[in-house]
Write a structure and sequence with these properties.
17 strands; 6 helices; single chain; 2 domains; binds (2E,4E)-2-hydroxy-6-oxohepta-2,4-dienoic acid; 2,3-Dihydroxybiphenyl 1,2-Dioxygenase, domain 1; alpha/beta; binds fe (iii) ion; 19% helix; globular
Length: 311
């Protein structure tokens, strides 16, 4: 599949209540690579197999949650073209100068109908994954410290009017919908959950309908396989981390997953599995009465915290 336009999730800036505690947590327990601090005091991380300088940014704040999510686009021409399309769609855009975020080029920022700040950018310093580009080994030292996910994979965001987000992502940004969750029959089965990709994954971003705008349900990190998910569960237990959902299978997207909370109460997921959809695939639908199986396939339980707790 030719990939032009929007390439992939690039970065997510998270608000945390205690920066040093969370820095240790994301470095030693999650096992991300600490890429340093900027002049504003924000802390930068990358996952070991990512090749660009950063993907998770922590900012000290009074409330937990997500400041913004950024997706990388192919080049400056794609950035200009997408900005014009977003404006034609009716959203105001803002250019944030290169260097405002460490090692990151100019960003085009706009607010999604669900209230989240979303960014596109074309440049971030290529630092590599530490393995080199000629005859590289399959992994190195950073692949073993803590949970050690390979990359920032996706996020699930909660907010109002996901129908407008769907229109923006599918008609303007070049995404396609892979799976969806419907609301109750009595309500006419509106879409209450949408899973969208700009590439070849089950989701690069997902939205669930929620009255409050701009909320984070989880930020998700990719693991290589189910063994690594079980190893991640061991590491969470060893570190007495608060776990929301212990290792299980999602029906939705077939992911093999764990959800847990960081020290500031932001939910994160470490997962493997899924499948590789193409743009010609028809959408998979989960009906409301089977939503529990979408979330937790073996038990079919609709865990209250999953729907109720967001930051
Ligand atoms: C994921 C995922 C629901 C499933 C969520 C799925 C809302 O977070 O990564 O596949 O049931
Ligand atoms: Fe997820």
């Amino acid at each position: 599949m030719a990939m032009t336009g929007v390439l992939r999730p690039g970065h997510l800036q998270l608000r945390v209540l205690d920066l040093e505690e969370c820095r240790k947590f994301y470095r030693d327990v999650v096992g991300l690579v600490d890429m340093g601090t900027d002049a504003q005091g924000r802390v930068y991380f990358k996952a070991w197999d990512e090749r660009d300088h950063n993907s998770l940014i922590l900012r000290q704040a009074d409330t937990a949650g997500v400041d913004f999510v950024g997706f990388k686009v192919l080049d400056a021409a794609a950035l200009n073209e997408l900005e014009a399309k977003v404006r034609a769609f009716g959203l105001a855009t803002e250019r944030i100068p290169a260097g405002e975020m460490s090692e990151t080029g100019e960003r085009v920022r706009f607010q999604l109908p669900t209230g989240h700040l979303f960014e596109l950018y074309a440049e971030k310093k290529k630092v590599g994954n530490g393995l080199g580009l000629v005859n590289p080994p399959p992994w190195g030292k950073d692949a073993e410290r803590g949970i050690a996910p390979t990359r920032f994979d996706h996020c699930l965001l909660y907010g109002p009017n996901i129908a407008a987000n769907k229109k923006l992502f599918t008609e303007v940004l070049g995404f396609f919908m892979v799976e969806r969750i419907l609301g109750p029959k009595e309500a006419g089965e509106p879409e209450i959950g949408i899973f969208l990709t700009c590439g070849h994954k089950t989701h690069d971003i997902a939205f669930v309908e929620h009255p409050e705008p701009g909320k984070l349900q989880h930020v998700s990190f990719r693991l290589l396989n189910w063994d690594r998910v079980q190893r991640a569960a061991d590491i969470l237990g060893m570190n007495r981390v608060s776990v929301d959902l212990s290792p299980t299978r999602h029906g939705v997207t077939r992911g093999e997953t764990i959800y847990a909370w960081d020290p500031s109460g932001n939910r994160f997921e470490t997962f493997s599995g899924g499948y590789e959809p193409y743009p010609d695939y028809e959408v998979i639908t989960w009906t409301f009465d089977e939503f529990g199986y979408g979330l937790d396939y073996p038990t079919g339980k609709l865990h209250d915290s999953f729907l109720g707790v967001v930051t």
